[in-house]
Amino acid sequence: MPRARRRLAAVTLLSQLDGLHALAGLLVGLLVGLTGVGGGSLMTPLLVLLFGVAPQTAVGTDLLYAAITKMTGSLVHGSRETVEWKLVRNLACGSIPATLATLAVLAHVGHIGRSAQTTILVVLAGLLALTALTVLCRDRLLRAAADRSALVPTRHLAIGTMALGAVIGVAVSLSSVGAGAIGVTALVLLYPRLPLVRIVGSDIAHAVPLALVAGIGHWAIGDVDGRLLAHLLIGSIPGVVAGSLLSTRAPDRLLRPLLALVLALSSWQLFLRTLALGPAADPAAITAHPAPVQPQPL
């Protein structure tokens, strides 16, 4: 009898599993482990455009998804010593206070304007496209930045890293995008001599507390779908472990084109998301509280 009950429970669980959501989690988790990018810049548009999830629910759910997924990835990178913990600390010193302040403003204001949302998405999409080119041209940037980086005082570099963290914190709280997309790009420019695998590992480790704080804030507001989150994690956890293990063995010459491809796809998806919102989109598409829907006359 106990065996029959366990079998029935397993069959029930499998019948409730959404394979497409789990597959999406697996693919995005693999990319997150390899490149540090994709948690928000790919998953959130994917949920909105492909699966029809409400934008505010997609943002909140994706933040907790990214926190748990990148927590797994950071454990792998940490065990292989591909994380610069001092860099992570400086980023967090800027991002966590900025995230808390942004969440407080969102809770007080209720929503940001439609034009501001569109501007944020367009800027992020443009930044991703620029980032793809930056990663492909990294060798030239390294040569150009080598002499400059030697002249930058360590204190100024730390302050710049904290300022970068603050920018990332605001962007992630508003749109769930930025922890990987903005972070990897800026860190490549700030630390041109640091191997890409260490930049990816540090960015993943920093995204854990950032996405967790922002995700809990959105969860408190009510913008998290627990069942959707569970389906995504079923695929993403093995995916991010596999991606993190592969990234520590893959040379930069393989990681750079892959990262550029992911960033280009992210940029395209964000442009599509902007078009999907459109001029008549819900003003709360990316924020904490959806605007009330006015009844339409028959």
**Number of distinct beta strands:** 0
Shape: globular
Structural class: mainly alpha
Strand content: under 5%
What is the overall number of helices?
Answer: 12
Poorly predicted sequence stretches spanning 5 or more consecutive residues: 8-16, 280-296
- How would you classify the quaternary structure? single chain
Radius of gyration: 19 Å
What is the mean predicted local confidence, pLDDT?
A: 75
Count of spatially separate domains: 1
Name the helicity range: over 70%
The helix/strand order is HHHHHHHHHHHH
- The span between the termini is 56 Å
Main sheet makeup:
none
How is the secondary structure organized here?
Layout: H1 2-16, H2 19-35, H3 43-49, H4 55-79, H5 85-109, H6 114-136, H7 138-151, H8 154-175, H9 181-190, H10 196-221, H11 226-247, H12 252-277
Quick overview:
This protein has helices at 2-16, 19-35, 43-49, 55-79, 85-109, 114-136, 138-151, 154-175, 181-190, 196-221, 226-247, 252-277. With 298 residues, the protein is mainly alpha-helical.
